[in-house]
Amino acid sequence: MGVTSLNSWLWQYAALITAVIIGLGVYLMGSTIQIAVLLGLVLALSSTAFALQLLAERKELTHRYGRLPFATLLFQELAVVPLHAVVGRRGVW
Question: Which of 18, 53, 73, 83 allows an S-S link to 44, with CB 3.0 to 4.6 Å?
């Protein structure tokens, strides 16, 4: 696996890796597994606003290396919809 493919792989799974790390931290602090998973997912997927602001300030949204993260962030935002549906319907599980 080359450096380019490793970076691509890490970028694609960044939200999942972040969610696992945050969820594990919350669980180790004494929360239930349901709360840990929920907080991990919500906090990991909430990075879109910060990342887009940073890309816009640097004027990188028009470049290829700015559009690819934007597409990933947009997909993450769309992934929040089923998460809200599950949480809203079942409470916290």
Answer: 18
